[in-house]
Amino acid sequence: MPIIQFPKGLKWGTATAAYQVEGAVSEDGRGLSIWDTFSHTPGKVKNGDNGDIACDSYHRYAEDVDLLHQLGVNVYRFSVSWSRIYPNGKGELNPKGVNYYHNLIDKLLEKGIEPMLTLYHWDLPQALQDDGGWANRETIDAFILYAKTVFNEFNGKVKYWQTINEPLCAAFLSNYQGVHAPGFQDLQLAVDISHHLLLAHGRTVRLFRDMRVEGEIGTATNTTWREPFSIKAEDMEACKREIGLNIDWFLDPIIKGEYPGYMVEWFKKKGAELPIKEGDLEAIHQPIDFIGVNYYSGNIARYKKDAGLLDIENIEIDYDKTYIEWPIYADGLYKVFHYLAERYGDIPLFVTENGACCIDQLSEGRVNDQDRIKYYQQHLTAVSRAIESGINITGYLAWSLLDNFEWAEGYGKRFGLVYVDFHTMERIKKDSYYWYKKVIANGWMEI
Ligand SMILES: N=NNCCOCCOc1ccc(-c2cn(C[C@@H]3NC[C@@H](O)[C@H]3O)nn2)cc1
Predict the structure, then answer these.
(1) Which amino acid residue places its CA nearest to atom 2 of ligand 1?
(2) DSSP 3-state of 201
(3) 3-441 homologous superfamily
(4) ipTM confidence
(5) pLDDT tens digits, residue range 26-63?
(6) What are the tens digits of pLDDT across the range 387-402?
(7) Would you list the domain boundaries of the chain?
(8) Distance between Cα 173 and ligand 1 center (Å)
(9) Chain centre distance of CA 4
């Protein structure tokens, strides 16, 4: 059986996010977030699911850290709930919220696990949304206050930091497609918010440097791949737009100091213009220590006039799909790595999310998720191919440690290495957990 060897220094871990796992939404002073509002709005989330309890990780974090320790990871990525720290987004600090994250981080460090802290994973305090949310530039100031507080509290304990998770989703799924909180459908609003999220990112990185916070700070970028259906210019340009909205739109301003012109023109044609003010691009254009790569899927695609935002249609016939209907296309991850290296140079790439949604049948206390194991084998092969090609990949985090609240899909879409019985909160290690544990321990995998 051939094996694939990984470099000794590659960091291994898993990832979660506050609203998806914590629960305890009204406990110890936490304020409401836009996802509390959105998930309690009828029709927004499948089965009427919400994050009120989720995986109850707020009370069970020690158990979760034990699962991480037994798994053998050296990094655990989680996010801080802004409205636990500042229940109204700014103003009065909530010490009990701060204390929860000290307890979580201390427990991780006790077990020799490096925390990777995401400052914003979509759960904007509702009080700030009531004042216009990310459409209001003043929300950026509130974010900087929040970031400063988190940096002050956890500097020295946390060595890996991420600013804003998947700004494509936070801007466009949330304000153009309208399928995520707060649920607007307005392209100009989405473009405005994408710019303000980049401003928040850049000013946070500047603050991180000015405060001399220890460690590394980076992004958490949606990535996807589109293989042109043909070599016709219209097909290739359509694919470039899809990849460009995921990657170029958010990383060019950070790394190159300018937006991708072809996308600026595309949005202008669609009636949306960037709200750039004097000094904005300089504020965004701050050196980062790594690009966080969140990859799930890709496919063949071609130009189709007036199809969606980007005049593109997916041709998915060549691929098996996961249970969330995303095509399985591991070669796309390999191409994303090369795309990032060619476009942005040798900035370290850290895979901060990759994983599969599977049906996951619990039978006699076991979940035989061979489909998820195969997904990981395929995508870790892409990681190894890229590393062997000279791409600077420093870590790999599986999404996710636990089955959790998968946003508008609710709890019916399971991504965890650990099965969660949402009636009892029992955690049950899936076969993929044991498989991943072996890969981490050995530093290689059989294929
Ligand atoms: N043609 N139009 N394109 C422009 C608009 O694209 C629409 C893009 O849709 C998308 C894009 C990305 C996702 C997605 C979901 N997850 C899983 C979560 N990641 C963070 C963590 O919380 C996980 O739960 N990762 N990525 C879904 C839908």
Answers:
(1) 309
(2) helix
(3) Glycosidases (3.20.20.80)
(4) 0.93
(5) 999 999 999 999 999 999 999 999 999 999 999 999 99
(6) 999 999 999 999 999 9
(7) 3-441
(8) 7
(9) 26
